[in-house]
């Protein structure tokens, strides 16, 4: 195996999983640099030099003059074009995949992120806010449900659009979103979960199970989440 030219600065979150899952799928060697969100590593000067917004993940392409890329949509597009994988070669096919990638970036991710905040982390329960984000997440899931009718993957062939959406949708329980009756979505999720590269990707930098457990690790995660949203 060739030496790794990609450095990945990441944490065990849906956004972090997108990039590690892509790299696992295409078999591209990479070095992992775990970022502790609870300790605020993402706000340290050395990280802010890579991403001024202080968010994970970030890649540094050592084979391209140490070029840094932040924002997961930008990272996935950069890596797809660099490797020529998980992105159609034709103009219309590339546009379709990009549209569903942007659907995740502009909809699924932000709405599920806010559902997590108000359902799990916010210091006071605001039922109207929780309902608002649960309803919007469900609506977005129903859009995916319709797109997946008669398809194994969002744009027929497996692509970065599937990776981006799945990494968020898979934590629906943690977000408190109901997926009852969404049979196409559920079947797609099962196909994604069964892919060995997906299994490896969501274990980077360490496995994280987002369930309603009352164990020490879950309590630690809740504490970290609350500290991040109240800073």
Overall description:
With 231 residues, this protein is an alpha+beta fold. The protein has 2 domains: 6-83, Glutaredoxin (3-Layer(aba) Sandwich), CATH 3.40.30; 91-195, Glutathione S-transferase Yfyf (Class Pi), Chain A, domain 2, CATH 1.20.1050.10. Helices cover 55% and strands 8% of the residues. It has helices at 14-26, 45-48, 72-83, 91-121, 127-147, 160-169, 172-175, 183-194, 196-201, 216-229, and strands at 6-10, 30-34, 58-61, 67-70. It has a 4-stranded mixed sheet, with helices on one face. A hairpin with a 5-residue loop joins strand 3 (58-61) and strand 4. Helix 1 (14-26) packs antiparallel against helix 6 and helix 4 packs antiparallel against helix 5. The radius of gyration is 17 Å and the shape is globular.
Radius of gyration: 17 Å
Structural class: alpha+beta
Largest sheet features: 4 strands, mixed
| Average pLDDT taken over every residue | 94
User: Which sequence of strands runs across the widest sheet?
Assistant: 2-1-3-4
Task: Give the number of DSSP strands.
Answer: 4
Strand content: 5-15%
Assign the CATH architecture of the largest domain.
Answer: Up-down Bundle
Question: Helix count?
Answer: 10
């Amino acid at each position: 195996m060739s030496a790794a030219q990609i450095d990945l600065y990441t944490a065990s979150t849906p956004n972090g999983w997108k990039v590690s899952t892509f790299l696992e799928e295409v078999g591209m060697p990479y070095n992992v640099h775990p970022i502790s969100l609870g300790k605020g590593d993402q706000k340290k000067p050395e990280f802010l030099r890579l991403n001024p917004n202080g968010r994970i993940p970030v890649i540094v392409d050592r084979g391209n003059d140490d070029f840094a890329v932040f924002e997961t949509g930008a990272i996935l597009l950069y890596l797809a074009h660099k490797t020529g994988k998980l992105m159609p070669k034709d103009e219309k096919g590339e546009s379709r995949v990009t549209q569903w990638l942007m659907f995740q970036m502009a909809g699924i991710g932000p709405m599920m992120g806010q559902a997590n905040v108000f359902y799990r982390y916010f210091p006071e329960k605001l039922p109207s806010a929780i309902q608002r984000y649960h309803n919007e997440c469900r609506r977005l899931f129903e859009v995916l449900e319709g797109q997946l009718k008669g398809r194994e993957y969002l744009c027929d062939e497996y692509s970065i659009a599937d990776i981006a959406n799945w990494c968020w949708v898979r934590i629906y329980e943690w977000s408190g979103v109901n997926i009852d009756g969404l049979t196409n979505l559920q079947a797609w999720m099962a196909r994604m979960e069964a892919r060995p590269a997906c299994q490896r990707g969501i274990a980077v930098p360490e496995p994280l199970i987002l369930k309603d457990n009352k164990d020490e690790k879950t309590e630690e995660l809740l504490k970290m989440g609350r500290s991040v949203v109240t800073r």
